[in-house]
Amino acid sequence: MEFTVKARCKKVKRVVMGTLQRLLTIIADGAFYSGSDLARILGVSRSTVNNYMKKLGELGLDIHSVPGKGYQLSVPLELLDIQAMQEPLGLASLKLISNIEIKFQLPSTNSYLMSLVRAEPQSSGVACFAEMQFAGRGRRGKLWVSPVGENIYLSVLWRFQQAPVDFACLGLAMAVAVARAVKRIGLDLVRIKWPNDIYLNGRKMGGILLEMSGESQGPCSVVVGIGLNVSMNSFLSRYIDQKWTSLKHHFDGDVSRNKVAGIVLEELVLALRDFQRSGFENFKSEWRQYDVIKGRQVILKMERTIIKGLALGIDKSGALLIERNGKVERFFHGEVSVCLD
C-alpha cells in the first residue's frame, strides 16, 4: 500500500533470510511450536529461536509466546506456492507465461525484473512474486508498504517487438486487468481512479507501477508491477496516510492469497497479449465503466501546479479530462483526488 515516507518507519528494513524464512514456513499454520522443537528442526539454539521470533515481530507479525506451549503465529499465513497459484490458470494464459518465480524478500519485484531485462533483453512472460519487499515503490516516488505474507506483490515482464501507437495507455489497460481479477474473486464494486489505482468502496486497495526499457515506438520491454492488498492487518498499516482497504475486509471467510495471485496473473498476461494485438481500444469502454471520479469535483496535483475542476472521464488517448472555467482541458500526468468540500 502506498504511503508518504515518515521517519519513524525505520523498522521496515532488509533482514537476513534463510533460517528465518524456514522458521516462518514452519509456524505459518498458526499452531503452537515449542522453542526446543524449533531449535532442533532448525539446528540452532533456543536463544537463537527467540531472537528470530523478535525479528518476525519487527516485520509486523504478531507472535504469541505461552509458557509450557511455545510460540504461535496469532494469524495463520498462507505463503505463496507456485502449484497452488497455477490452479486458476487456463491453458491460454499458461502458454503466455515462460516462468514464475517466488522470492521471499526483494527490494522490489519491479527492480528484480528490470535487472533481468538488462541481463536477458529478449525475456518475456516472466512473473515474479515476493512475500515481502523492503523497497517497494508506488507512483510519484512513494514507498509501498509491503508486509510479509499478507498481500500480493507481483511484477510481470513483457517484451513488445513493436509497441502499439497508444502505448502510453498501457497502465490504464493493466488497471482494467486487475479490476477484472477482483470481479472474478467476487467483488463487483471495484473501481479505478485515474490512471491506474484500484479502489473499493472509496478506499484504495491496489496500485500499478510500469517501468520500460527500449523504444516507445519500437522493440521494448515493460515490467508491470502490481500491489494488491489481500489481508493487510499488520502494524505497518499505521504508516499509510490515506484511506485503504483489503480483500479480506469484504468477505466473511478467508481469502486465498494463492487463488488471488493466480487470477491476477492470468488477467495480466491475457491483457498484455490483447494490448499487444490491438492497443487500448478494447479496454477503453470497460475502463470508463470502472471510473470512480467521473462527474466529481477533483484536485489534480502536478509538479508545479494544482488544478481544480470537474472530472469528465478520459479521452481516446487516456488523458484525464477536467472542466474548469468553462473549458475542458486534457492532462496526462499528476496525482488526482476527489474534493472533500
TrEMBL record:
Keyword list, A-Z: ATP-binding, Ligase, Nucleotide-binding
Cellular compartments per GO CC: cytoplasm
EC number per UniProt: 6.3.4.9
Leading EC class: ligase
GO MF, any single term: ATP binding
Protein name according to UniProt: Biotin operon repressor / Biotin--protein ligase
Organism: hydrothermal vent metagenome
Pfam families (alphabetical): BPL_C, BPL_LplA_LipB, HTH_11
Domain BPL/LPL catalytic: 95-276
CDD domains hit by this protein: BPL (cd16442)
Gene Ontology annotations of biological process type: regulation of DNA-templated transcription
